[in-house]
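@channel anyone free to eyeball this complex?
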Amino acid sequence: MDYNTEELLAVTLARLIRDPEAPPARHIAVGAASPVPAAACWLVAKQGAPVRLSLLHKRSGNPFTEGTRELFDLTGQGRIDLFFLGGGQIDGQANLNLVGTGEWPGKGVRFPGSFGSAFMYMMTHRTILFREEHSPRVLVERVDNISAPGVSAPGVFRRGHAQALVTGRCVFRFHPDRGRFSLQSLHPGETVEEIRAATGFDFDVQGDIPFTPAPTPDELALLRGAVCDEMLETYPEFCARVFNRKAAA
Amino acid sequence: MQPIALDAMAASVPDGAMLALPPDNSLPSVALAKAIARRGVRGLRLVGVPVSGFATDILIGAGCVVEVQTSAVSLGEAGFAPRFTAALRAGTIVVRDATCPAMHTMLQASEKGVPFMPLRGLIGSDILANRPDWKVVQNPFGPEGDIIVLLPALSPDVAIFHAAMADSQGNVWLGRRRECATIAHASQRVLVTVERVVEGNFLEDERLAPGTINATYIEAVAIAERGAHPVALLDEYGFDAAYVSEYARMAKTDAGFQEWAAREIFHPVAAAAE
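replying in thread with the prediction:
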C-alpha cells in the first residue's frame, strides 16, 4: 500500500508512544508547529489508547484555562508524561540547541529560541525527539549552544530523558546511562553506511538493523480519516498536503 | 470608564520603557505596537511573555527597541522573525534569552510581591550560564546536594495587550488567555486595546468573571477594532496568514521593511484605520 514520508513518521512516533517498555503515556502535550507528532498522538488516541492530549496551539477548545503557564505547572508536578522536542542542532549526547549556531546567543545562524525546552526536557517523564532533516548540519558531534541538556549531573533533579530520535531517515534509541544513541531502525531504502555519512555524531550499531516497519492499512485508514478530521482546524496546510484533504470553507 | 484615543495611549509610553507583550497566540495589541512605532519611541526593552512574535518584530524593524528578553521570537508558520534576526546579527539589540516557564515564574513572583521564585529544570542549559541574574542555590528544605534555580521578580514598566471587550467599569474580558492576567498583575502600568466597550460590569456576570481582568490593574483602555490583526482574536477573527507571509518576505531586508512600514504603519490611511 502506498504511503508518504509523513505517514511513515507519524506511525513510527505512534509506536514509540505506545512502547510498553517506556513509562506510560497518559497525558501528552504537543507544542506549536508540530503536525507530525500531533498526528502520531491522535493516531494513538484513535486506536483506543486511554490518553489525554493537550495541544498547545489549539484555537478552539484550548486545554489550558490558566494561560500557557498551566502547561509548565502541570509538567513541574510530573503530570505530563510525554513531550516532543526538536532542535536546530542535536548532538550525540542528546543535547538540544534551539538558540543558534556560533557564539551565544546565536551570532552565526540564529534560531527562534529555546521556548520551554530547558524545563520540559528535564521535567517530563519522557521526550521523543523529532527532526525530519537528517544531515550533518543538524545532527552534530557537539551542539554550539545547549538550550536543553541531554543528560544531567548526578543529583540534579530530572524526571526523564530522550526516549528516541526520529528523523526522516531512521530511528535512534537514546541510552541516558551512557549518554549515547544507538541505531534502532532504518527507514526503507536507507543503509547504515548512508546514515553514518549523514550523521555528525558517533552512535552504536548492534547486529543487523531492521527497516522501520511500514504503516499498516488500518493505521493509514485512521490517519487519513479520523486523525485528519481532528487536525484540519489547526493544521490545514499539512492536511491538504499530506492527506489531500481541504478544510470546509 | 472613558476610553482614550489610541495615539494618546501610544504617547504615554516613554522612551526606554520595559514593555511586556504576549505572543501571537495570546492577544498582542498589534494596533498599539504600530501606534508606538509611528510615534517613534526609542530604547524600548521588550519582554516576551513567554515568547515574542509579529509585534516585537515590527517594533525592532522600526528602530524602537534596544533589548529583547524572551524565550523565542518567531512568526510561526511564516518562519523566523526577520528584523529580530537582522538586529541580533548587527548587534543593535541585546537579546536576553530565557525559557518559557522562567518568564512566567519571574512575573508570578511580582504578582505575589516576593523578590524571587524557584524553578526546576534549567541546570545544565547555557541559558542559565548566560543569565548572571539567575542564581543556583541549595534547596533549603531538601536533602544535601539538591540544587535549584532562583529567578528574580520581574515587573515590566508597561504591559500592552488586546482584549475582546471592556465594560463601563474598565474591566476587560479576554477569556481563557490568562497569561495576560499574569502580565497585568505583574506590571506597573497596563494599557489595553479592545474591539468594543459594552455597558455593565463583567464581574457581576458569573460566566464572564473568570475571563475578566479587574479594572484595578488597568490604567487605560482604547478602542482599536481588529486591533490584534494579523493575529487571531479568540473566536472573533482568525490569523491572517497571507499578511504575515507578505511581511516575512518584505522584511527580509531593511529596505523591504521600510517599504512595508510606509504602507502599513506610517501611511495616513493605515494610521487612520487603527
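from a first look: Chain A has a mean pLDDT of 94.
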